[in-house]
Amino acid sequence: MPKLPDAREWLTFYHILRYPEAYNRVCFEMRSAFVSDEEITGARLGRLLFLNACIREILRLLPPANSKTAQRTASSCTIDGVHIPAGTTVSADLYKIQRLPEYSADPAAFRPERWLDAAEDTEFKRDNRTAYRPFLIGSGACIGREMAQQSIRLKI
Length: 156
Known about the structure:
Blueprint: H1 7-18, H2 20-33, H3 42-45, H4 49-61, E1 71-72, E2 77-79, E3 82-84, E4 89-90, H5 94-97, H6 145-155
Antiparallel strand pairs: 1-4, 2-3
């Protein structure tokens, strides 16, 4: 029995279908890249710029690791003038961070073109791409990141 898409894959379908320009562009890109189903491989899907921009944009808007950011401080520190004692559980809200206007132009909108190199000459040229952390970073980073993205690509 075939596996049904998970929530992240459904959300990717939803956003691509909700925006006809994005849908048409993904369809054109895929039809231009592949003549038959047999040609479709994970490696080749990884080179489809707009498809991958759509996936990145979904992960920016709806980060899968949002609830997994809690960490205990190893030592006391001061952040923005607030003393944080050692052993305090701290967390970052990736959903909120990735939607802040300080980091992205039009932050609440589905705009996959922000991830394309051509975005350097658009309203997105000042986007802070280091704020993009849907799979976290460092020792808490998701080890299944590449597999998750590949799964989404293959199902689209």
